[in-house]
Amino acid sequence: MRWTECISDAISFIEENITEEITIEDIARKVHISPFYFQKGFAMLCDFTVGDYMRYRRLALAGSEIAANDDKIIDIALKYGYDSPDSFTKAFVRFHGCTPSAVRKDGASIKSFAPLSIKFTLKGGYSMDYKIAEKDGFTVVGLKRTFKYENAMQDVPKLWGEFHQMSAGKAICPMYGINADESMQGNEFEYLIADKYNPAMDIPDGFVTKVIPKFTWAVFSCKGAMPQVMQDVNKKIYSEWLPNCKDYEIAAGYCIEMYEDPAKYECGVQDENYYSELWIPVKKK
């Protein structure tokens, strides 16, 4: 099944079960792909996470019902997955900018959030620079944390800030950003800011080693200021390259960011010529 068809089918499944307790695993199983692959692809194609999409749709529908009928607000809250008035009100205010009572009593305005519709768009002229490369396994040393996919966009940059504040950052070059979800079945992944491991050097306190297995990698070139250039290439991998690639598919739950030394560039990572790469493990279809 094509990537865009998988996402479209997943959206239909979510909409049909919007008031049910469904998990990422339920949705991924329905469209026959791993939770890892599904969550990354959904976020890249849709610009928000699966959890955000379900939350926004439920709050939008709840707002419509509060405005349109006289059902008890607590019953509507329970219908859309909130088990207490306080949690529902807080989420409702964050989304709509007003309380459920203000909608019911004062006719306050609410926000709409329509179901996603995946459409095919013909885009011409764009080329992606990539190569298929066999790489032996290698060991890295780095700072590791475990994150939930839902909060990754906020939490990963915080880890980079933590890394740069640590004195060990002076001894370890942040050559790699490694996303690892080896089971490809859960809602969490490991992220390491890492360098190649040198057995002759001591491992700094708080740092760990990790072996990256041997894989065939699709290596995508990124040239330009960070982080925008890498975000753009990452999105194109999931929205354009993977859906149209006839020969390869993702082989394992890894994604590696490779960064050149910023000291080589006049403006560091903000230089228009700054070079980085994205590595995706692939296998023949």
Can you walk through the features of this model?
The protein is an alpha+beta fold. The protein has 2 domains: 3-106, Arc Repressor Mutant, subunit A (Orthogonal Bundle); 130-284, Multidrug-efflux Transporter 1 Regulator Bmrr, Chain A (Alpha-Beta Barrel). Helix content is 38%, strand content 22%. It has helices at residues 3-16, 24-30, 35-46, 50-68, 73-79, 85-96, 100-106, 152-165, 228-244; strands spanning 130-135, 138-148, 176-180, 188-196, 208-212, 215-223, 248-250, 254-259, 275-284. Strands 1, 2, 3, 4, 5, 6, 7, 8 and 9 form a 9-stranded antiparallel β-sheet that branches. The longest helix has 19 residues, at 50-68. The protein starts with a helix and ends with a strand. 28% of the residues are buried.
Question: Strand share of the residues?
Answer: 15-25%
Largest sheet properties? 9 strands, antiparallel
CATH topology of the largest domain: Multidrug-efflux Transporter 1 Regulator Bmrr, Chain A
Radius of gyration from CA coordinates: 22 Å
- Going by helix content, strand content and strand pairing, the class is alpha+beta
Overall morphology? globular
What is the count of distinct domains? 2
Q: What is the succession of H and E elements?
A: HHHHHHHEEHEEEEHEEE
CATH class division of the largest domain: Alpha Beta
Q: What's the pLDDT, averaged over the residues?
A: 89
How many helical stretches? 9
Low-confidence regions: none
Q: Separation of termini? A: 12 Å
Give the name of the CATH architecture of the largest domain.
Alpha-Beta Barrel
Number of strands: 9
CATH level 4 superfamily of the largest domain:
Regulatory factor, effector binding domain
Please give the share of residues in helix.
25-40%
